[in-house]
Amino acid sequence: MKPHHWISIAAINMITAVGAGAFGAHGLKSVLSADMLAIWQTAVQYQMVHALGLLGLSLLQAQWNERLLRYATWTMLSGIVIFSGSLYALALSGLRILGAITPVGGVAFLLSWAMLARCAYRRQH
């Protein structure tokens, strides 16, 4: 996928995160318990931070053109979908078993940041 496509995907994730945050603060405040609302807000926070990460990776792809950077971008998007998606579903459904999926997304985040670090290190040497 080309960098400009990834920039669009990052922007869509930011739009979604901002919308989900507003929806949680206003639309779900009276519907969800405090625990579930906190889970919702965690999903929003991680989606927003990693959407910015996705934007950064997209911009670097245009400059560096490295395969590992492309893998990092896909991995970060997977992390957003799995981590935040499972937390959104958990908050709305109350099914605690969905929390077992969340760490897979967290590992994807860690891997994507590690891949970026590796790319940056290789460029120095």
UniProtKB/TrEMBL annotation:
It holds the Pfam family DUF423. InterPro entries: DUF423. The keyword Membrane applies. This is DUF423 domain-containing protein. The chain crosses the membrane at residues 7-26, 38-59, 71-91, 97-116. Keywords: Membrane, Transmembrane, Transmembrane helix. It comes from Undibacterium aquatile. It is found in: Membrane. Belongs to the UPF0382 family. It is a multi-pass membrane protein.
